[in-house]
Amino acid sequence: MAIDRPAVAPGTPGAVPTVVVSHPHPLFGGTLTNKVVQTLARAFVQCGYTAVRYNFRGVGQSAGSYDEGRGELEDLLAVVGHLAPAGPLALAGFSFGAFVTTHGTAELLRAGRTPVAQVLVGLAASRFACAPVQAELHPRTLVVHGEQDDTVPLSAVLDWARPQTLPVLVVPGVEHFFHGQLPLLRQWVVRHLASLPPAG
């Protein structure tokens, strides 16, 4: 697990918000050190969040084995319960991690806790049944996808987003891992977070 904290001036009012960032597919090399995951964490830290990156079960030193999203959802919710049981909370994820994030957000809403932000990058909508985003969270949700993603076709994400009338930010010429465009991804996440009401 990795925790990155923002520079917060002593006496700053309000609670420091937390974001929990989920990584790509465990069976295809996904870990908390993935460059997109690190970029997401840095963007949130830049905006005053404490960023928590963790490994799903069976990855690195984590016990257990891959569970097709069910156990990984439990992992996400366990991290939230342990490190951010109260206070402003955001969720973010990349690829398989974005799929798990959609279900994590849905579970939190069912439990009466509304995330202050949700960021989904390279959402694995062609491979997994991603949860829809509640209408109340649309303004706080950023969905980013590469135009030339050959791992998750853009069409699959649009098919998921279309019934919800949920906007998708498409980055022209970019593939799944945002090679060469991570600074642009970070910029868009920072811009999205800056547009939201204060989380504290």
Layout of strands and helices, then pairs:
Layout: E1 2-4, E2 18-22, H1 35-46, E3 50-53, H2 70-83, E4 89-94, H3 96-110, E5 117-121, E6 141-146, H4 154-161, E7 169-171, H5 182-194
Parallel strand pairs: 2-3, 2-4, 4-5, 5-6, 6-7
Antiparallel strand pairs: 1-3
Helix pairs in contact: 1-5, 2-3
Could you walk me through the main structural features you see in this protein, from its secondary elements to its overall organization?
- With about 200 residues, the chain is of the alpha/beta class.
- The protein has a single domain, classed as Alpha/Beta hydrolase fold, catalytic domain (Rossmann fold, 3-Layer(aba) Sandwich), CATH 3.40.50.1820.
- It is about 30% helix and about 15% strand.
- The protein has five helices and seven strands, in the order ββαβαβαββαβα.
- The chain has helices at about 35-45, 70-85, 95-110, 155-160, 180-195; strands spanning about 1-5, 20, 50-55, 90-95, 115-120, 140-145, 170.
- The chain has a seven-stranded mixed beta sheet, sandwiched between helices.
- α4 (about 155-160) links the parallel β6 and β7 (about 170).
- α1 runs parallel beside α5 and α2 (about 70-85) crosses α3 (about 95-110).
- It is globular and about 45 Å long.
- The model has no long low-confidence stretch (mean pLDDT about 95).
- Distance from first to last alpha carbon: 24 Å
> How many E strands?
7
Instruction: Indicate the radius of gyration in whole angstroms.
Output: 15 Å
The amount of beta strand, in percent, is: 15-25%
Helix fraction bin = 25-40%
Taken together, the total number of domains comes to: 1
Task: Identify the CATH architecture.
Answer: 3-Layer(aba) Sandwich
Q: Which homologous superfamily in CATH is the superfamily?
A: Alpha/Beta hydrolase fold, catalytic domain
The shape is globular
Helix-strand pattern: EEHEHEHEEHEH
Please state the structural category.
Answer: alpha/beta
Mean pLDDT: 94
The side-by-side strand order for the widest beta sheet comes to: 1-3-2-4-5-6-7
Q: Low-confidence runs (pLDDT<50, min 5 residues)? A: none
Per CATH, what is the topology? Rossmann fold
CATH C-level class: Alpha Beta
Largest sheet: 7 strands, mixed
